[in-house]
Amino acid sequence: MHAASPAPEPVTADAPGAITNPLLTQSWLDLAFVHWAVDPQDVEPLLPAGAVPDTLDGVTYVGLVAFRMHRVGWFRLPGLPYLGTFPETNVRLYSVDGHGRRGVVFRSLDASRLVPVIMARAGFRLPYLWSRMTVRADGDVIRYTSSRRWPGPRGAHSRIAVRRGEPIEEPTELEHFLTARWGLHNAFLGRLMYLPNVHPRWPLHRATLLYCDQDLTTAAGLPEHLGEPVSVLYSPGVPVRFSRPARPAGISTP
């Protein structure tokens, strides 16, 4: 008989630890979080081996997250002002592994800088894609556009606009579940990799979705008709630190 997997770690609004010697540093700014509820069976085949859908009350979620990446840097070096600064839009799923670690799985990460795209694809096997992108703010309205260039499907796109609302003093259980994620799962050289991250607690705002014309979720293998979003949030952003990938046993590499 196989030993039962441990229960998923609790969802915590604050990072569970600190990263004193980061592998990567960056800031995520002007984020729009758009989420749809989906059946876990629809996303389970899209997760890497060793990860299963993370659920809340029997439901899991697909996230479309658009934002500005700002000053990506290696180790303790200053972040890069040009190559490390660009718009990004990702399609993400929610995952938990056999050690109970909750995280996200990226199905696609569209970004407007080719060099970081190539580096992330080669170095971390992450599904980064090169796209034409803009992020523009006009008062409390933020607009995000994306049109894929390479490797495809060429022309996969998103056009999103949100109106920023009031700050959220006490996020709901669902809002914590969707945003308080302290690592990512990814297949690397045939094994499941977990890359931990830390950042301050999210400053979240209510947001109104003014329009959302996109096929990035379909291009990422999700059902074509997701229905209406169940959650739309905005955040001005946070500084982020990533640790080195964790071994399967959960111990960070030296």
Automatic annotation (TrEMBL):
Origin organism lineage: Bacteria, Bacillati, Actinomycetota, Actinomycetes, Streptosporangiales
Name used for this protein in its record: DUF2071 domain-containing protein
Xref: SUPFAM superfamilies: Acetoacetate decarboxylase-like
InterPro entries: ADC_dom_sf, DUF2071
Originating species: Thermomonospora echinospora
Pfam family, any one: DUF2071
Domain of life assignment: Bacteria
